Amino acid sequence: MKFAVIGGTGLIGSQVVRNLNAAGHEAVPHSQSTGVDVITGQGLDEAVAGADVVVNLTNSPTFDGASLAFFQTSMENLLAAAHKGGVGHFVILSIVGVDQVPELDYYRAKRLQETVLEAGPIPYSIVRATQFMEFMDAVLSWTADGDTVRLPATPIQPIAAADVALAVTEVAAGAPLNGIRDIGGPEIFALDELGRITLSHKGDSRTVVTDPSAGMFAVVKGDVLTDKDARLAPTRYADWLS
């Protein structure tokens, strides 16, 4: 099959392209660097022409309120181009619990992306993943102050980006789900505990202070960012760190 992978040069997209091509498909990466702009629509018709499947892995450049407009416009443009091009399956990557944290602009924006797809004219699949292991350094940087890092005890179920890419590849190469598949890492940690494990592995002497008001994940209530019933990926956090 032929796949147009929009956002195909990023962390997940580049691996999805590689996986699909290794499986004998034709997967072409598209991004701003290849002349495709999902906001202006530049290059979209050409990018999806002849594709059986579109995999949209683009991401908003910001995590604030502007992300809602990004996902609204980009999805409308992509769906219009894909529908015109006769695409039979449209896949996006979202977040486990995305509909449970309305306090976060970015999560509301990702849920908006899902609803635009669900209401669109093309058979679809949504893959919801738990938090990427690769994002832990960024999470630590948000609330770092001198010798301390403040983190809430929010339950987190980290998943390796390579496992996310494999799951997206599998879904994209299959029949449309017309629904959602949840995927997650094999272990659940409190975020502050995960911070301590990460710093210890790196030989970083900073102290993690448990602070229920610190950082983006402070507004998350309960364990909505985890899913014990999700399809569990194999990579454990300690193995990923090593």
From TrEMBL:
Gene3D superfamilies: NAD(P)-binding Rossmann-like Domain. Pfam families: NAD_binding_10. Keywords: NADP. InterPro entries: NAD(P)-bd_dom, NAD(P)-bd_dom_sf, NmrA-like_oxidored. Residues 7-171 form the NAD(P)-binding domain. This is SDR family oxidoreductase.
